[in-house]
Each structure stands twice: as C-alpha cells, then as structure tokens.
Amino acid sequence: MRKKKILLLSGGVGGAKLADGFAQILPATDLIIAVNTGDDFQHLGLSISPDLDSVTYMLAGLASAERGWGRSDETWSCIETLRRIDSETWFQLGDRDLALHLHRSMKLARGTSLEVVTAEIASKLGVRHKIVPMTEAPVRTIIESYAERYSFQEYFVRLQCRPQMTGYRYEGARWATPSHGLLEALHDPELAGIMIAPSNPILSIGPILAIPTVRDAIEKTTVPVVGVSPIIKGAAIKGPAAKILQELNIGASAGAVAQFYGDLLDHFIVHPDDAGAPWSSNAKRHVADILMQSEEDRRRVAHSCLALLDIT
Amino acid sequence: MRKKKILLLSGGVGGAKLADGFAQILPATDLIIAVNTGDDFQHLGLSISPDLDSVTYMLAGLASAERGWGRSDETWSCIETLRRIDSETWFQLGDRDLALHLHRSMKLARGTSLEVVTAEIASKLGVRHKIVPMTEAPVRTIIESYAERYSFQEYFVRLQCRPQMTGYRYEGARWATPSHGLLEALHDPELAGIMIAPSNPILSIGPILAIPTVRDAIEKTTVPVVGVSPIIKGAAIKGPAAKILQELNIGASAGAVAQFYGDLLDHFIVHPDDAGAPWSSNAKRHVADILMQSEEDRRRVAHSCLALLDIT
Known about the structure:
homodimer
C-alpha cells in the first residue's frame, strides 16, 4: 500500500496558507484538510463557519490578500444597509461571503450535513482538494477571563481579544465525533502523515484535538505527526496567539507550542530565528523558513513538511 | 372631531405610487398605509415581505424607477455568488434589499412583531408616514390553476403568471385579525376615508379584504370608501391584473373591478378613456387621469381621491 496521503489539521487564515501550499503540490486525492469549527456561530439567523470559508476561499484563489480575511472582489452593500437601519453590524459580512452563509444555513436547516454543504460549495468554487469540518457536532470554543465567559466571536471580533484569557473550554467537544471525512482520513491505510498547521494552538487546533476520537487516533497513529510553529521569535505571524499563550502561562515560543502539543507531535518545524532557543519537547525540531507570504512561500513550507515524511 | 385621516389599502408597486402621492400631501399623522402580506414568503431561510418593502422603498425615495421593483443604488454580488454555487436564485435578491430581509428575519425570530419591525425599518430609512402590515397572521395567497395550486411567488416570479388562473384562496385569512395599526385606523374617529389603491384586486387588495374584521369594518364604516381603477381601457397599468380578471370571468375593465369590490365601494375613479364604458356598479364613477408616472402625477391622483372626501 502506497502511503502518500496527507491530513492537515487547520484553523482559518494561517492554516489556509499551508493548505494552499499542499494543494499546489499534491493531487486532489492525496490531501484532506480537516478544519476547526469551534468558531462557528449564528449571526442574523445565519450559520457562519469562518475557518471553513477561509480555507475554501484560499484554495479557490478567492482569498483577499490585502485584507487578510474574507474574499477578494467583495462588496459591502448589505452591511452598509444594515448599518443604516441600525441592525447588528459588529461582524463584517461581505455581499459575496453572505451568499455562502445563506446557502449553508438553508441546506443545514433542511438536514444536509455541514460536510456535504462544505464539499458542494468548495467544488462549485473550483476547489479540487477535500475540505471537511472537524465534526458535525456543535463544538463551541469558550474563552474564560476570570469570572467572564465569551464566545469566540465575542472575544475575537467584538472585544478584539482585549480581555485577559485565564482559561478556555471547547463546549460539546467531549460528545463530538469526527466528521466522516476526518475519521476516514485518520484510519486511511494510505495516510503518510498528519500535519498541524501554524494556526492558533488554543483557538484553532485545540478544538480539533479536543474531540476524543481524534485525539485518540493521533496518539495511536503510526504515521509521523508534523507541526509548523505559529510563533516566530516570540510573536505570532498573525492574530493573538502570542498574547494568549503568555496569558495562559504556556509561553509564547515555538518550543512552548511544541510542548503544548506534547506527545502527539513527532516533528516541529521552527523558523531559523528560533533555531537556537531552548527546546524541551520530545518532538524533533527542524528548522526552515516558515513565513508564508507568497504562493511560492506556501509551496516551500509544504515541501519542508513533506520532506519529513516517508512518502513511498 | 376633525375627520382628516386617510387609510390606504395597498399592494406593492402600484399601491406604493398612490401612497407616495398621499405622503406628499398629508402630514405624517394623517396617513396610514395598510399593506398586503399575502405574498410574504420564506426564501433561503429569510422572511420576505415584498409589498411592505415596495411601499417602504417608495416612501423613502429609494424605489428603483427604471426597474419598477426593488430599490435604486442596488448591487447584486450576493445573488451572483449564489448563482455561482448553484443555490436558489429564482427570486432576485439585491444586496441592499437583503439587509432588510436579514434584519426582519432576525427580529421576527426573536419575537418582535412584523408591525414593529416594519415601522423601525421605515423610520430608519427616513419614512415619516405610517406603514403597517395588514396582519401579523400568516395569510398566504394561493393561485389555483385547474388541479394545480401555486404559492404567490411560484406563480408570479417562477412561472411568470403563465398558468391560467381558475381560482384563488387566501390561506389563513379566515383566522387572521388586523394588525394593531390597521384595526386602530379602521375605528379612528378622525378617519375621513378609506382608499383602495390601484393594486391588483385579486392578488393585492383581496387578501386584505379577506380578513373578516377588516371586511366587516369597511362594510359598516360611515366614511367614504374610494377606489382607483388598476385597469385602463381593458389593460393593467402594470402586472397581470387584466389577464387574471379575464381568466376569472370578472372582466378586465374598470367597471368590472368596481363590481368586484361590490358594496364596499362608494366611489371609483376611472381613467378618461373609460368614462363612457358601461357601468353597473353601485359605486359612483368619477373620471380623472389616474396614470402615475411622475411624482407630480402621484400627487395629482391623491388630490383626486381627497376631493371626494369631506375633510373638515
């Protein structure tokens, strides 16, 4: 049996970049991206899956490079009008983005699974590789700040990550099972490696690993588990990862993230600037330029990951 | 008690023009427009009230004159994207229009009444006069064509009024009660007259009159009931009224419409071209130019209506 398939665990924008790197290299059948749904939420009656959409837009070549989120060629007529009628406008809804939320909400209400809707949308937008939600279950990431509890979007969008994070919970994760696609990938005899994207360990990867069947399968897998550091020289490439890792006393360093993933991890790729930093994780440290700005960067980082696998 | 208030029963576009005529003349406190909701429907999970929105856009100065429906300064990014992902696109949803549907759906789902949401939206868009739905109840106009039954939108939008109409029903009307605003207006001691807009008698005015309390109040009212003909020389000014009136053997003439309204009607204003046509209605026929193309036309027709009242 040829081992050649890659499973990537991914959050939104950062993960989407590595997903794109793999998608540039691997045939459609050899890549599956399992995406965090802990940030999914209801807004204006719509079912919104921000990370799934970020990965979909990136692989469809529709992600906005300038804005860093959402899609390119976007217009904002609907939210302008919502603002005019004093409706809820704290969440930025582009007109084209809205179409996905409307379609997904309608399909989910009719009983279609999130996995099927996600696959249909991605396919219509020209994505060839497989994007699946981590689960169909309503896992919700909750941010704790002393006595306060915030939903992900409240914390991330409305409060712009200002509250000090003192804890977190993945509500519903304990009872969640992986989506069909993710479960199948975890046990696929052709699986060559499991990749952990340089996404936020707490907010993006944590929810995926909190699904008992997923964690269990990754603990027991015989294929290499390879992570890419979301932290370079103590700072996050994007987003609040460094702040959160510090607030939770995990430490804002590549080494601390590797330790956070613990025995799940076999290999961890860090930036050259972090090559000499203290290292106490059991995972093997590898050094590569992991900054992903251009399409070529993304391909290069994907190649660095694949180089650690024994693809036959 | 000064009798000076006007209640206008209205459908969408045609009714909205007369509403605008009155709104140009009357102070905000002296006009209430009760609008058909028999065409309201759910689409992509949204609660859509086409006639309420048409009247709102018209009075807000936002109606598209070129298109004849929807609003001006509209963009179409969302529906373009819905088309790209093969979603439901038979109903034209503009991006700005969508904002109203999203906001209304959210508010209704939270238990706000359609009357309150309608008032809030209209007020935010700068409308000063009162626009109310005919009822909060789910009255639905059903078009019968031999053995087939169609919802209004199926018939009107999807099938473009092609099926021969052999009958109709206002589902739910029997158990519906008028909205607070409409009920209050019907019994307002200051009411000077009830106006029936030149809207489709079957599809737009019929559902309002099918609410038992409304019909009863109009039958018993002591104030004049004044209609404006939607038919000029056997043709509808807009829409399928003439075709439908013929198919139902009511007859596509101003006189036939007056007879259709029966004893509810005291006065009926017809176009000069219909001044000499046979007349067998008990309502008094008045002749005036009832074509409304410009803002001035609308004001003129409103004045023709008001001239028949005894405003003190």
